[in-house]
Amino acid sequence: MQFYSNPIPSSWSALQQRAAAGEAPQVAARVRAIFGQVREQGDAALLTLAAELDKASLTSLLVSEAEFTAALAQVPADLQAAIRQAQANIEAFHAAQREPELRVETMPGVFCSRRAVPVQRVGLYVPGGSAPLFSTLLMLGVPARLAGCPQVVVCTPPQSDGTVSPVILFVARLLGISTVVKAGGAQAVAALALGTASVPAVDKIFGPGNRYVTAAKQLAAAEFGVAIDMPAGPSEVLVIADETANPVFVAADLLSQAEHGPDSQVVVLSTSAAMLEQVQAETTRQLATLPRRDVAALALENSRAILLPDVAAMLAFSNQYAPEHLILATDNAEALAAQVTNAGSVFLGHLTPEAVGDYASGTNHTLPTSGYARQYSGVSLDSFIRKITFQRLSATGLRALGPVVETMAEAEGLAAHARAVTLRLASLATSDEDSSAVGAAAAANPYAGLIRPSVERMQAYSSARDEFEGMAPVMLDANENSLGSVGPDDFSRYPDPHQRAIKVELARLKGMAPNQIFLGNGSDEAIDLLVRLTCTPGGDDHIVICPPTYGMYEVAANLNDVRVERLLLTSDFQLPANAAEVLAASTAKLVFLCSPNNPTGNLLAQQALETILRTFKGLVVVDEAYADFADAPSWTTRLEEFPRLVVLQTFSKAWGLAGLRLGVAYAAPALIAYLDKIKPPYNISAATQQHALAALATAPSLDQMRDELLAGRQDLARQLPQLPGVAKVFPSEANFLLVRFNTDATAVYDQLRARGIVVRNRTTQPGCAGCLRLTVGTAVENEQLLQALTEIGRGPAG
Q1: According to the annotation, is 365 in a ligand binding site?
Q2: What residues does substrate bind to (predicted)?
Q3: What is the pLDDT of residue 444?
Q4: Annotated binding residue at 210?
């Protein structure tokens, strides 16, 4: 290392030059030529450059399924476990970076919001060659997946035998990434920017690399309209080491960066000449033991040890240098950290090596180099999303804000801008009277315009049991066959068409009135009747569903010839940030919201549902089939507040009575009356009513059964992530778990079925690629499931 003693500040900029800076024109010319070659020849150029630069003879650019399978068997179990732990830490840190949608009412009636949308197509560059950086794929792939980027393409240099590092392929499969391209250097960046037959063009390119990769990313951004994360070139570290530092640790940190490549740079600053001498000596000693000592030695030739007079000077030098990695090897690291203004990532104290950030602490190691830390941040969840702003004005808002805009537009001479406001204000003025009348009518009848006209006109069927309630000694009014009344269970008579006894018991249990309850032949009957009640078949009426979700909503719509609109859930299975705005503008008659959701198991955010309930003009159906397993209050407690709310529940789940086929809808009495009007006359059998009443009499025993099931769910959720092949277990508030596998989930499903264990394959559901839904069973069944998945994950050799 080059040693400098107390250089004056005016000379610092020369000491801060990176090794590659002097070669910039030659590098840029070479990169531009490569872009031209890839643009003209496509895949052929990538194959030629692989042979020329990587010494690899390729027949295909894309990693095949067979190569993925072969690679997985080559990664030792201890390394797999270490990678999974690193993945968990990175995921935890980056998931915490999510921000709730920003919503501000800037003045009465003027609503502004901002929501995050994932970058649709991202390319991840993973350095390979002599040191394949599988950790980089973790650092880029985890936030890409958390952000919900629909298309992820990985480029990494092939090894000389034409293969890709098996560890890189293991990580790709762990993250659910299937498109891995055998291409490195500037040519990989060119392919991602321009697109070829094998390599999809992307919207944004991520990843570190040498000076050619950095120059290629900058060219892609400047001339081809492709965004980049940052100019991330050769790695670098700066260490501030006071007299309390351990020279052995400092030398190890310097070498950990020097071994990345010959153009890496390391810098150590100290106020102690003795410390610098010890660091130099220790660096020389440790260098001799490194497998990559030749590479590290070349990097050390352009690295520096600098003696400075005080801590203030060291901090000033560091902030001017703007290192990719900054290590504060001091006793007062926390205090010094407050004065750091330019750095990619900072490591505090004597026990925090830079290597933990490279691999597994949770922070991202894709960081700005070459002084770009003055302008850029390291990669984060934000790197994979865009934030879109929205605004919506109510009539009140337009009346208040409109004149402001008119005045400003006229002052700038932009008459069309002013007119766009003026015309709307005039329209409001003429419609105020009509609007008031409509608003009063809507308040008086919250279902105005929602119920099919034919339903409003029809007369409900009146059964014999409607005309004469109860029983008499001789019942000859319902054409029953009284000769069949034998045995203790007399099913020769029609049941109560209104299930009065059950409703009374349910009302007592739920703390509501019987006339707020509708009973159906499973929740499916209530779903079907709600569609029939509101939507005219074959017309313009439609419903909204939020996939991935319960499939019967769409089935009911299709059976009734009703159009379906889809509002997709986000990657974490929540309603999109603009859901309320979309639904407020919708003319749909119904929106079905499943919470806890099926097949994902999560609760939808309460605030999002409340906003929808306040603004959506149709019926809001909240399906709570799994609510008894959730740690959240039921929406049945909000029925008085929201007259267009319908809550669905069932006896099939927590009650353990799926065979009864008894579903419940809770709603305002007027809405329940509509459902009673169109239901079949005797839709709940006498046997079902008898068993339901018996179950209601023993309702307290449900708590014990629920607690036992939740314990089983917790145990499965703890053990499943430790199994080979399991990529993620999603949080669940239901009696099942959605599990993503890093192998072929359909093959796992088939192998479980072959062992006599049947689960639900959800791989085709939106956002559920690679997922199976596992119902929580008995303790014995859960153990059989875990054992089978363990055997499947180990493969034939296991």
Answers
A1: no
A2: 235, 257, 260, 325, 358, 412, 417
A3: 63
A4: yes
Question: Letter for the amino acid at 678?
Answer: I
Q: How many CB atoms lie within 10 A of CB 255?
A: 23
Q: Could you tell me which residues come within 8 angstroms of residue 457 by beta carbon, excluding any fewer than 6 positions away?
A: none
Place of tokens 């810098």: 267
For the chain, give the number of residues. Answer: 798
98-150 pLDDT, tens digit per residue, is 888 888 889 988 999 898 899 999 999 998 866 688 999 999 999 999 998 99
- Confirm or deny that 235 is annotated as ligand binding: yes
Q: Is 214:352 a contact under the CB 8 Å cutoff?
A: no
For 371-412, the three-class secondary structure string (H helix, E strand, C coil) is: CHHHCCCCCCHHHHEEEEEEEEECHHHHHHHHHHHHHHHHHC
In terms of Cα–Cα distance, which of 492, 470, 490, 502 is closest to 689? 502
Q: What amino acid occupies position 384?
A: F
Report yes or no: 304 and 1 within 8 Å, Cβ to Cβ. yes
Amino acid at 669: P
Of the candidates 597, 782, 741, the one whose C-alpha atom is nearest the C-alpha of residue 173 is 741
Contact 241, 333 (CB under 8 A): no
- C-alpha distance across the termini of the chain, in Å: 51
pLDDT tens, residue by residue, 265-284? 999 999 999 999 999 999 99
Distance separating alpha carbons of residues 147 and 224, to the nearest angstrom: 24
Q: What is the largest CA-CA distance in the chain?
A: 115
- Measured CA angle at 105 (ends 99, 109), to 5 deg: 145
pLDDT of residue 700: 61
Please state, in angstroms and rounded to a whole number, the distance separating the CA atoms of residues 528 and 645.
16
In angstroms, the CA 709 to CA 562 distance is 38
- The answer to whether 651 and 662 are in contact (CB under 8 A) is yes
Say how far apart CA 406 and CA 422 lie, in whole Å. Answer: 7
Contacts 24+ apart (CB under 8 A), 19-24: 19/234, 19/263, 19/265, 19/302, 20/211, 20/233, 20/234, 20/263, 20/370, 21/370, 23/211, 24/211, 24/215
- Alpha-carbon Rg for the chain, nearest whole angstrom, is 33
Single-letter amino acid, residue 643: P
Is residue 412 part of an annotated ligand binding site?
yes
Residue 395 one-letter amino acid? A
Q: Does 160 appear as a known binding residue? A: no
CA distance 770 to 744: 7
Q: Is 260 annotated as a binding residue?
A: yes
How far from 411 is each of 397, 399, 415, 417, 419, CA to CA, in Å?
22, 19, 9, 11, 13
Residues designated as active site: 324-325
Q: Respond yes or no on whether the N-terminal peptide bond of residue 643 is cis (omega within 30° of 0).
A: no
Q: What pTM value is reported for the model?
A: 0.59
Instruction: Give the closest residue to 385 by CA, choosing from 764, 119, 22, 669.
Output: 119
SS3 assignment, position 685: coil
Determine contact, residues 759/784, Cβ cutoff 8 Å: no
User: Using CA of residue 742, residue 748, residue 752, residue 758, what is the dihedral sign?
Assistant: positive
| Ordered structural domains, the chain, with CATH | 2-18+234-362 (3.40.50.1980), 21-228 (3.40.50.1980), 455-467+491-697 (3.40.640.10), 703-794 (3.90.1150.10)
Q: For residue 568, what are its two tokens?
A: 């997709």
Annotated ligand binding at 652? The verdict is no
- The pLDDT mean for the chain works out to 91
Q: Are the CB atoms for 403 and 133 separated by under 8 Å?
A: no
Q: In angstroms, rounded to a whole number, what is the distance separating the alpha carbons of residues 3 and 569?
A: 58
Count CB neighbours of 484 within 10 A: 11
Question: Torsions phi, psi of 645, nearest 5?
Answer: -90, 135
Q: What number of other Cβ atoms are within 10 A of residue 744's Cβ?
A: 17
Question: Which residue matches tokens 């079902």?
Answer: 688
Each residue's pLDDT tens digit, 291-313: 999 999 999 998 999 999 999 99
The annotation status of 187 as a binding-site residue, yes or no, is yes
CA 423 to CA 263: how far, in whole Å?
64
Phi and psi torsions of 517, nearest 5°: -125, 135
